[in-house]
# Entry
Amino acid sequence: MKKHIILLFFACIPFCNIVAENVELLAYPCEQDSVLLRWAPTDKQMWDLGNQYGYVVERYTILRNGEQPDEIERLQLTPEPLKPAPLEEWEKYEDDKYVSIAAECIFGEKISIPILHPVAIAKQQQLEQNFFSFALYAADQSITTAQLSGLYLVDKAARKNEKYLYSVHISLPDSLPNDTAFAFTGISEHRPLPQPLDFKAQWENKKVQLSWNILYLNHIFNSYVIEKSQDGKNYTPISDNAIVQVADIDVSPEYGYWSDSLPDNKSTWYYRVRGINAFGKLGPPSDSVVGHGRIPITLSPVIDKKEVINNEEIQLSWEYPEEMNEYITGFRLYRSSAPDEKKEKILETEDSRCRTFIDKNPGLTNYYLLSVFDDYTEKVSSSHTYAELIDSIPPAPPVAITGSIDSTGIVTLNWMKNTEVDIDGYRVYRSNHPDFDFQLISPSVVKDTIFYDSIQLNTLTKNIYYSLRAIDLRQNQSIFSEILELKRPDIIPPVSPLIQSVSEIENKLLITWINSSSIDVIAHHIYKKEINDTEFQLLATVNMPNEKQSSYTDNAILPGETYIYYMKAEDNSGLFSASSSPMQIRVSGNSPNQITLKEENDSEKITLKWSINSKQKAIRVLIYKAENDEPLRLYDNTVENSYIDNKISIEKTFRYRIKAVYEDESSSELSNEVIIKL
# Structure
């Protein structure tokens, strides 16, 4: 059961490598009739043991025609463990530098450093580690070196309809720990090698810098070959041996780099790169890059002439060495209305011979910057070139002006921004009268479309007036805008009116007064109370007439009653004047419902008696009482013709009034007041 599970595991994996602790194994199926095997020890100790005891390479047939064979076929691919070849075999390839490097590391006389100090021990270990590293590096770069080192084998007996599990281990004695590396593959798993990606060239002065991506293919290729051509067809390597990526702190580790010298800057060259895998197989070439050397841009162009044409266009001319024409791409021209403002690109020409340009849509003020560029560099002129058009046309006056004044006297003005492109700002003017001269109140040009002002509110001038002018970059000023009228918030109450007289005419009272002298008064309010009432009531509101003197007739009066009047003026801001001086009048005659109150008193009680002169019968009498200066309050009621109050005390003053309630539930006026001091 365990055997079948293992077989099923490998059968489901098209290609796999299992790395052991002591050795690593790679298998590469060729498209014809063989499988290439490469292995390497994982450290210096295993390298020494592998060189001493050799490597055992075995093959297990896992699948045949897609099915598992009845018995797993095990085959040792070499009769004896593979070791480095004898030195005389190496000498046949002395022209191969990688063979020489590996031979020196394996057979060369090792330098022995006297062990006198821990530092000397570390140096000896480092030297031996270098032999190991150089030997494996040489084997990676040369398949001949790998074969002579005992690290390479070709399984030529492999069949296309079979898949194998290959194993490699060091043929160590049983007393030493050992480990085995595996690789599962078959000839049918052959895949063509890919071409390198993202191959680029940066052309410089008699030099080209080449780069290509190695990150995505580092599991396939361990070295690369750069090839060059002058016709794009016949390529030759630029060196006799393969190259590998060397990391540099100034470049990206995802890319491989190579630099090549050029004989001149005029000849055209083609370059491409090809990858080499660990089995020495050369992959297909990358896409080619083509170009020639370039003299680097070190000079910026200089505008040496400017001309205004009909006050509508500006022609610019510049200088640049003619011998640089074949090395530059062209020129770019930038424009702005001020040196520090954002620049607009108005020209990008790829004609390296261009030395002039006409700006057909310039502004009134123009700051130009010119640059020269190629595929890698842009060199901008160090200073601006200024050119302007003559402008004598003033801008339009500001429109849509609005404003407000708050209760503290802060004025806020807003208006619409002018549409002219050369507007510099605005000036704000103020006046207390629309027909007077307007005074400038903005000491500097207002750049925004909002302005704040502060004014006095405690003044008799009710309105304030504003006007604006627009100003452009040439200091041309517009005419004045339409005048904006704002009303000051009213904080001053009106002057009080003056009551001249209150006279009785045919059972009516005529109130005559002199109107308030304030010009913003809209109404006068008349207040009234009977002499014994505690509060005044609003009697009438009289709208402000055109005449200086006004009057009002009060019809709601009673004979014998005394009335008091006063007045207030109101302005259009809702402010009220102080009260006028009050005026009092007693109506002549006796009231038809007159009540007379009398009193009798001793030290223990107060007796109230009254007479009621009325056409109606009184069904109840209300008693009002007050102590000292307190207001009168309803105290009691009675249906009798008199009332005795026992709740009294000495050294106090008591006041009484009464009111009759009639059958129709109406009531009389208050009687006269009786004052008793005990």
Summary: Residues 1-15 have pLDDT under 50 and may be disordered. The two ends are 133 Å apart (CA to CA).
